[in-house]
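Task: complex structure prediction.
Instruction: return structure tokens for all chains below.
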Amino acid sequence: MATLERREQRRHSDRCRPTIGAITPRKYEPESNFTRLKNSDYAQPVSWDVIQMAAPVPTPTMTPTAFVPAGAAAKIDVRQMHFYYGPRRVLDNVTLQIRPHEVTALIGPSGCGKSTFLRSINRMNDIVPGARVEGSICIDGQDIYAPSVDPVDLRRRVGMVFQKSNPFPKSIFENVAYGLRINRLARSREELGGRVESSLKSAALWDEVKDRLHTSALALSGGQQQRLCIARALAVEPDILLMDEPASALDPIATQRIEELVYQLKARYTIVIVTHNMQQAARVSDVTAFFWLGKLIECDRTNKIFTAPSQKLTEDYVTGRFG
Ligand SMILES: Nc1ncnc2c1ncn2[C@@H]1O[C@H](COP(=O)(O)OP(=O)(O)O)[C@@H](O)[C@H]1O
Ligand SMILES: [Mg+2]
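Output:
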């Protein structure tokens, strides 16, 4: 509570600053000065100031940069994309570049097309009858909808974690080993064991499960199961990780662990995360894209989206006027 009170005092001292609607713009503060929310903060009504101050594990090496379109450096380059379920268009002319080694959050009201957009990046929508994509999505410069692209290979390179953890009814070890086996990524039993271990370590789960690797994955807690699913996705060495509301079914402590993990993983992966939780977007992401009724309304550095968005609609959404 003391932290919240200090923030509240700071908010009062900020009152002399000009306001944009309900938003009080802050002078830019290096992200290393941000403070993390404590678990106890999650239960409190979070003030706008807290949203802006909240960020994951601070690292002094983070250098804030102004948002520039990713251009040629884009890991994922989406151009003039339309998406249809049968005759119904649910994404309308979306152009978005996602840079490597950053976390990009997709926010927007329910039904605005966030999951559809995310699933288009690894062609998960291919299995939906009548689903159709127009425009282009390139990863590392290659059109992923080109006939030469094998969707199975694409999904190995672009891993996905869902809202509801979905471990196989097998042991912890076998859950992680599964993808390694079917993709023939381990040449020996030792290599398989080593890769399972390193994947579990990357997903911050190893210490909790190393003594019970051969017990059922279904006996793990919800948060552990979700980290197991992350380990399973990481085992096949993707370079992009898509996460669709990965913590929305978890308690605050498990959520915090997932958020810390996301923050650590971006050093090695490009991460795109859908979240309906704006505090979470503010904490974990570098860039935020706001969708509304199938359109990409605005995409910018997260700090800017939450303090001085360019579009009125974005401002209304992030300040909770609708949603
Ligand atoms: N498999 C599907 N078939 C038909 N319509 C779908 C399907 N999945 C989603 N939709 C529709 O597409 C729109 C966008 O959905 P979705 O991408 O799930 O939005 P969000 O993730 O932002 O809530 C919604 O109107 C939804 O009803
Ligand atoms: Mg969704």
